[in-house]
Every structure is written in C-alpha cells, then in structure tokens.
Amino acid sequence: MLKDLQEKNRLPVYAVTDPEFAMYGRVVTDLDVAGIIAAGEAMPMPASGSKYEASTPAFEALPIAADITKRYFGELPTQIGCCWGHSNYLNALEWHTSSEINVAITDIVIIVALRQQMDKNDSIDSSRCVAFYAPKGTAFETYATTLHYCPCEASADGFRMVVALPKGTNTPLDGPKQHRTDCDKNKWLLAHVDNQDLVSRGFWPGVTGENYRIEY
To answer: pTM of the prediction?
Structure first.
C-alpha cells in the first residue's frame, strides 16, 4: 500500500516507521492495542464526513487506558477518544501544547508539518507538509511541535484512529478566544484558505498553497 500511495500522490509519503518521522513523532510498541481496535471497529461509520469524540467510554474502560495514562502522560488525567469517518484532504492544521497518542484502527495517512515552520503571520504554506502512512495496529506518539489534523483514509472504507490527550483537550473554551488561532481547550487551528466551511465559521485561514488530496 505504501508504494501505491507514493506513486499516486505528489505530496511525499513515508511510513511512520521511516527515519523521516522522527521529527514529528515516534512509533510506540509497548501497548496492547487489540482490545481498543476491536472497540473502535464496532463504532458505526458515518456515511460521509468525519466524527471526533474526545472521550470514548468503551476505550477508557480498557486496560490500555491506564497504560497510556501512566506511560505517556505521567499520570495526568487523560481522555481517550476516536476520530473516524471519511476524509481525503489536508483541509487544516492544528496543534496542542502536549503530545498525543494515536492508534491506527484502520490503515491511515496523516499529513503533518512543524510549528517551527509557521511564519510570523500565523501562516504556513502546504509545501511544508509531508504525509505518513500508518498501517492498522500501529501505535504512535505525535509530538506537541507537530501540526496535524484529521487523518486521511487509505481506502474507500474510511478511517478510524484512537486519539489520547490530556483531559479536557478539544472541548469548548470557557471564555472568548484570546488569539485568532484559538479553537478549543488546548487546541489551536489553521484552516486551509480553500476550506470554506472552516473559514466561514471564523477560523484563521492560515494554510496556503495546495489543499492536498490523498489518492489511493
């Protein structure tokens, strides 16, 4: 599949196991992901579009939840949720002030860049982006310095990905935005200028250049 993705896309595509991923995150191998994959596969797939659930009770009841909290968040309160559905485009880039732990419930492609590559106008050209393929069952850490967004599907069946973050992340702000890139708690977002859905909702159009579509 990786070879097909590389041949069909102008955007460079690597595997998360390749050395190129080291500046964006790392693969983790000390988590038993079988149970959480089974729970994620049982969640109904939307007919179109994608969904995000910050805290998924079926995930948080599993032994892996305690392992993630202890090993990767230093016992801080943690939420373990899911992002799933259908998506092919870059569309936006977001970041948190913490790492997140992800598990690929299906084969997925993530498009990433680095916060350090943003300019003083809180913008970034999409030519800075790189794509990484994570096969089903891969667990990986995405660093706080990594710009990322909704994963892209690697087949017409859609995508599913576990998203573990400090508790409260991606939930609505209690007060007004303090900065144009503010989105939710512990979440800042740059919409692609061509993503009129996000731009019309007031999100900062900070991603310029091509709105890459992942072909498979």
So the answer is: 0.97
